[in-house]
Amino acid sequence: MEHHFLDQYSDRDSLIHRLDPRVKAITFFSLVLFVILTPAASFSAFGFYGALLIILIAFSKVPPIFVVRRSLVIIPFVVIVGLFMPFIKGGRSLGNYSLGAVDFSVTYEGVMLFWNIFIKAMLSCISLTVLTSTTRFVDLLKGFETMHLPKLLIMILSFMYRYIYVFIGELMSMRIAKESRSAGGGKRFHLKAIANMVGVFFIRAYERGERVYLAMCSRGFDGTVRTLNRLKLNARDIYFSFSVIALLITIRCFAK
Amino acid sequence: MTNIESKIVEIRKLTYAYPDGTMALDGIDLDIFEGENVGLVGPNGAGKSTLLLHLNGILRTDSAVSIFGLTPEGSNLPLIRSMVGIVFQDPDDQLFMPTSFDDVAFGPLSMGLGADEVRARVEKALLDVSMSDASDRIAHHMSVGEKRRVSIASVLSMNPRLLILDEPSANLDPDGRRSLIELLKGMNVTKIIAGHDLELVNELCQRVIRIDAGKIVSDTLINA
Q1: E strands along chain A, which residues?
Q2: Domain encompassing residue A245
C-alpha cells in the first residue's frame, strides 16, 4: 500500500525539487523569519512576500490548490488565538455592536492584531508546505543532519517516517478484521472492541520496537546512528538561496 | 559436497529459560563448520529464533557458546556481529532506516569503515541481490520480495562469514520465493536457514537440524 501524506509531490522533478535540501531549508526558513519580523502595517510587504511565494510555487510545479489546502490546517489555531482579539484588545474603536444584553466593540488595534496573526501564520505555513512538497522527507532529514541539528531529534523523526506507514498498515488491517466480523451489536460493544484494539496496537508497536532494536544491535548498533553524507552543493543552489534572500531583504527594507 | 575447513560455531549444553521460567532451549549441543549450509527446522515455539539470537550474542548464556573461537560477550561483540549476519523474518524490522542506501550502509558504518569503503560495499551488496537501482528508494514503497533482498544486502555489506536467515521465504509469492532460492544458491558463505519451508531447505542445505521443545531431535545429512 502506498501512502504519501507526509511529502506528497516531493518525488516530482522541477527547478525547486532539484535544489539541495539544505539550501531549500535555509531559504524557506528565512522567508518565514522575514515574514514574522515584518510589522503588521506593512501591507505591501506581505503582498510582495505572497507574490514571491506564488513565483516559487509556479517554478515548483506543485498544484497551487494543494499548497493552499494543506496550509489551511493552520486556520483552526489562528481562529482560536486570534478571533477574539478585535473584541478584547483595547484601543481606538471602529464600531459598537450590541447583541441583546451584551455590548461589544471592535477596535483598530484588535483588528490589526488579528491580521498580524492571520497573515503571518498563512504565509509561514505556505512557505513550509512548498518546502515539504518539493523535498523528499529523507533528503530533508539528511540536510538537517549535515547542518548539525540534534542527532536524537533526527533519529526520532527518521524512525517516525520509517514506521508511521507500517503502523498505519497494521491499524488498517486490524480495522478490516474487526469490520469483517462485526454483525450488529450496540455502540457500547463496538466502543469496547475499539478500546481493545488500541491496547493491542500499543503492545504491537512496543514489540516492534524491541525487534527493531535487536536488528539494530545485530548490525553493530552502539548508540549512534551513522549515515553517509551524499549531498553536494553546487553553484545553482547558492544562486537560488542568494537571490531569494536578497529579494527578501529588499522587500523588508523598501516595501511599506 | 560440504567443504569443511574449520569449526565456526561450537555450542555445549546450552540451556536458556525466558524470564517467566519457560524453558526455551534445553541442553543444545551443536557444531557448525565453515562452508556448511544448515537447515534449522521445527514447529513454532521450538526455540529456533532463541537459538539464532545466541549466535551473535543478543542472548547470552555463560560459556555455552563459542563463535569463531570467541565468547560472545563484551569487547568481542562488535567483531562477532560483523562476522555473523542475521536476516530477521520481518523486513520491516530489518530495514529501519529511511532509504535502502542508509540501511545497507548501517552495518559497515558501525564497523567504523571509511566513507569510500562503505560506498563500495553498499554498491556491491545491492548489486549482489540485484537491487542496484533501489539505493534511494524508501522501504514502504517496495514489495515484500524487494524488501527481503535489501534485508539480505543489509547484512552482506558487512561481509559476514556466517549468514543466518530466519524464515527467508515468509510472505513471498512463488516467483519471489524462486528468485530468492536462486539468489541464496549463488552465495558462497556458510548459511543457517531457519523456517518451515522444507522445500527451500531441501534445495539449499546439506544438513538439517530438527529441534522441538528446546532440544535437538535429529541432525542429518541430506543430498549427500
Answers
A1: 93-99, 102-107
A2: 21-146+231-254
Domain assignment present for B2: no
For residue B167, give the C-alpha cell. Answer: 524464515
CA distances from B209 to A79, A119, B26, B53 (A): 67, 70, 15, 16
- From chain A, pick out residues whose CB is under 8 angstroms from the CB of B97: 158, 162, 225, 227
Q: What are the chain B neighbours of A219 within 8 Å (beta carbons)? A: 81, 85, 106-107, 110, 154-155, 158
Question: How would DSSP label each residue in A197-254?
Answer: HHHHHHHHHHHHHHHHHHHHHHTT--S-----------HHHHHHHHHHHHHHHHHHHH
Q: How many C-beta atoms surround the C-beta of residue A193 within 10 A?
A: 13
Digit-by-digit pLDDT tens for chain B (224 residues) are 444 468 999 999 999 998 888 889 999 999 999 999 999 999 998 889 999 999 998 888 776 899 998 888 888 899 999 999 999 999 999 999 989 999 999 999 999 999 999 999 999 999 999 999 988 888 888 999 999 999 999 999 999 999 999 999 998 999 999 999 999 999 999 999 999 999 999 999 999 999 999 999 999 998 76
Residue A38 shares a structural domain with residue A131: yes
What chain A residue is nearest to B154 in terms of C-alpha separation? A219
Q: Is A97 helix (H, G, I), strand (E, B) or coil?
A: strand
CB distance B132 to B101 below 8 Å: no
Structural domain span for residue B100: 7-221
Question: What is the ipTM score, two decimals?
Answer: 0.85
On whether any CB of chain B is under 8 Å from the CB of A172, the answer is no
Nearest to A220 among B101, B110, B140 (CB): B110
Side-by-side strand order, sheet with B207-212: B84-87, B162-166, B190-194, B37-41, B207-212, B215-221
* B110: closest CA of chain A, how far (Å): 6
Distance from CA of B205 to the nearest CA of A (A): 24
Q: Are residues A46 and A159 in the same domain?
A: no
End-to-end Cα spacing for chain B: 7
